[in-house]
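seq:
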Amino acid sequence: MPISDLVRDIKNNSSKFINENKLVKGKFQWQEGYGVFSYSHSQVDHVYNYILNQEEHHQKKTFREEYLEFLNKFEIEHKPEYLFDWIE
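struct:
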């Protein structure tokens, strides 16, 4: 399955769930776009532990800081002024 199809399905299904269950005020919708970073199978445990401890991890480093680090680490061209303009 192409990553773009997977992300589309996740966004569609999660938005529907959130809106049907009225988990937020107003209508929930995802922002446009997404970021995907891949790791080798040998890193599965590392990725799993990262996800498991993500809440604690983001008390030390913001999502924005980490995302920008990923973009730089993976040498992905980007313009920081166009990222996260909705986050203070």
